[in-house]
């Protein structure tokens, strides 16, 4: 496995990240726990150390599984999770990119992941309403003081769509991140955001 630096964080992550959206079968598809664990173990045996999940994947089961799988070696993985989405319900502030949503999602993710910190925390989907000052980079002071988030990121759109995002100069821990169509056959997004 080859490793690369994660932005300007200094963290070395495997070039292949393990996306865990299919860990859990609550949505009628995906992997039950035993299959997900085999995928995780195979990835780790190959030298992978970069795990990506989200608060909403399989209604939280993905984070629960990842939390169980990393027990005993949490320090050797780089753990990324995302927020923005929430299950339909009566709380109009449960989803979105605003501070209230971010803090609530972070606290719930930490519980499900059974950890006291997250290495990379980022916006899953822009809500189109929150101003840049309401996005995670501006909240990193709060989360960093809690020692729960090591790096905060916002999504990056490929150049052809909306141009490359720029780091917020007022927040040093703000990183560029990416979320787009990526598969073994489709790598255009990776090339766009890594230029």
Distance between the termini: 22 Å
Give the CATH level 1 class.
Alpha Beta
Percent of residues in helices? 25-40%
Based on CA atoms alone, the radius of gyration comes out at: 16 Å
CATH superfamily: NADP-dependent oxidoreductase domain
Low-confidence stretches: 133-140, 155-184
Describe this structure in words.
29% of the residues lie in helices and 16% in strands. It is an alpha/beta fold and 195 residues long. The protein has one domain (3-193): NADP-dependent oxidoreductase domain (TIM Barrel, Alpha-Beta Barrel). The strands form 2 sheets. Strands 3-4-5-6-7-8 form a 6-stranded parallel beta sheet, covered by helices on one side. It has a two-stranded antiparallel sheet with strand order 1-2. Strand 5 (78-83), helix 3 (99-113) and strand 6 (118-123) form a beta-alpha-beta unit. The model is unreliable at 133-140 and 155-184 (pLDDT under 50).
Secondary structure blueprint with pairings:
Layout: E1 3-5, E2 12-14, E3 18-19, H1 33-45, E4 50-52, H2 61-69, E5 78-83, H3 99-113, E6 118-123, H4 136-145, E7 149-154, H5 159-162, E8 174-176, H6 188-193
Helix pairs in contact: 2-3
Entry keywords:
single chain, 195 residues, alpha/beta, TIM Barrel, six-stranded parallel beta sheet, 6 helices, 8 strands, 16% strand, globular
